[in-house]
Amino acid sequence: MSDKTRKKAPPALRKLIAKVNRARGRYKSAGVPVSAMVHGLISKGNAARSAKRWEDAARHFGDAVTQAPHLAHIWVQLGHMHKQLEHYDLALDAYARAEALDPSGEGAIEQGRVARLQNKQGEALQHFMRAYHANRGNADALTEILNGLERRTRMERQALAGIVQGERKSSRALRSADSDLAAIDGLLARARALDLGAEQVQALQAAREKLASPGPSLADWDGNELVFDASDLIEYFAHNRLPTGIQRVQIATIADSIRNRPAGTVKVSCFSDQDSSWTEVSTEGFMTLCRLALESGDRTDPEWIDAYTELKVDISLAPPLKFQTGAFLVNLGTSWWLRDYFLFVREAKRAHGVRYIPFVHDLIPIITPQYCVKELTQEFIEWVLGVFHHADFFLVNSNATKRDLLKVAGILGHEMDSQDVAVIPLDAQFRDPDQQLAPLRKLREWQLAPGEFALMVSTIEVRKNHAAAFEAWLALIDKHGIGRVPKLVCVGKRGWLDDAVYAQIEASPHLRSRVIILSGLSDEELGLLYSTCRFTLYPSHYEGWGLPVTESLCYGKVPLLPDNSSLPEAGGPFAVYYKSGSIAQLTEKAEMLMFDDAERARLEEKIRAEFRPRKWQDIADQIGREIESFVKRTPAPTPGNDGEMVERIAPVRFGAYYPIGRSVAQRIWRGSGSAEIYRSGTGWWWMEPWGCWTKGEGGDIALRFVDQKGPVRGFVRLHAPPGEPTRFEISAPAAGLFVEGTLAAGEFQWVALDIPEIAPVEGFHIRFRSVNPADLGKITDGNDTRTIAIGVGGFYFCHADDLIARANFIEAMSIGGLSQIAFNREPAGGGTKAAD
User: Fold this and answer.
1) Among candidates 177, 180, 330, 328, which has minimal Cα distance to 254?
2) pTM for this structure?
């Protein structure tokens, strides 16, 4: 009897069939027939596992595979139980048995996880590579590979290279110019058969002429190397494929620079805080990945997975990037999420005279901190303090962002020339004329009809101000009745501080019936919503640009906007505006767009007739021109008398405490700063709340005393690694300083420093070194694979004969009041908020 027939049988007959099957021993486990005895053992094992009785579960699963050794999935369960019991060798054996039975199953990846627990990172990677190649769709294996490659602290580089090079597919090369020319010639030869129009033929001829013409030569080269930091873009590709606004800008700009400058003068790089360096990214692999990203949003496509994996492997195996002297380091994305980023910008400047150009997209956590979580505000302020200290020029996306940048610089006390800030408006063509839209039936699935809804596209978070839209909708429902007010479709993923948005909907039956929240839509589905909505709404409290506004205009739809931040720039003369914060005006303008068909049609006609968005290529061209203008305005750096670049060392004020640690500030004021800038070289790990560990070889701080009159007394707070006592050395030969001592494991201690000589006026280095660095991998069971040496929490210097300054320090240290004598302390009155 078939399963389909059995399901249609009467209950009594089904029970009889089940009884017969049990009598015949027809049991299944994961779809595999097993005997009654094996089924019973597996059931007992499952029950013991659920109760976390690992030993009992291991015994039952072990008995089951003794009776039925062909059950790969039970070997996996046996391995899990041994792993829980920390019987790692037995777990590896069980997983290996499972892999032998089913190479594409879980056995290999689980072996990798056990090897990682044993701190055998190289062996773990081999298992993960085997799992990935046995099943290209294994996202877990891919994730483990990439994470392992990025950490790679304990891996033998040559052995790793052999594994990867031996197992992975050959690189997918970009098409050569010759093959492109041949393709274009073929299209031109078939132009009539293909029914190509005159404009298409001209475009093909222009493309052929450009390809056939000789590229730029080194004779035309200005001598300045461009290095694009694509860390942000490559990280985006780890979780997404189809690029949005700023990703498209990065792709077009970097690709243009690669094509239009002489070979070898443009590099793509990726920063790794694990390796403490930038590594050079293969331009061929990068361009291949970007081409694939623009073709589709399918992240499960094997070609995409292979290209991304191959690029990440190349990045992991590449040596640290060597900057040319005077190179320009350009970051078109974001970097505030990267630990210790500016330490290595500073090192690149010190070692190679690098000039740094970031793209600032907004200053939301400073201008409107009330709409951000505390941790984000703290991280962003730390980044802002660093960016003003290190950037030579800035790119921004709107005049509003430029004004904010100059305002924040003024609050912090940084002098900035407005000519050093270039505005790159993101008024780009979002709508591809040939874009396929999702079928209209999708609207019915969402319970929508064309023209009967307004659209709001944004992350669901408090800054986007969904609350104002909901208040306006409720007011209009009260006035016109629920049946006449269009639905409001909110498209976006959940962000931070969004609980109030969902609570507002839940509390109102009217909102529940008229508000629809959608997320995870494809480009085709989003295009369908834009093309069929009545109008769009974007009531945000603050934006850097406002990409959904431009997107709305590209679809010919009128956006309703507040008159704040950059939104008037994004909407131009085509949007309808209301006074920011006025619910009454928002309601009035929304009512007009809902019910005044003639006025809405007039506004849409104006968009069709006059709105001319730029191509992404145009934006890339402008960025290229601005960078070139910065290049021409900046003289090449010159080395000092010793042939080395002159290190720019920040002055140290006597009588002030300099804490080296993560910022906890949630506002800025004149004098805000970070003692992070005194760390010099690459001998430091990232900062933590208490301070910063040095690496095994030791770390330097670079100091400059501007008013030294005689011997100096200093104090430095040290922190010993866990595990065992630490012997340390502190030395500064240029200032006649040498101190050594021992700290107990994990101990914090203040150590006095005496500098008897007048230090060099250009500055000097103090080196902190441990005689016996600690291997955290052994102490933390592999969770932290760093090798750390003595930690530094902060320092204080004063003239040796300044008894008041010394007493002030001792008093502040004794009562826990060091923040009151810190160099960057907040002034009385609470400081200055950028939003004031």
Assistant:
1) 330
2) 0.75
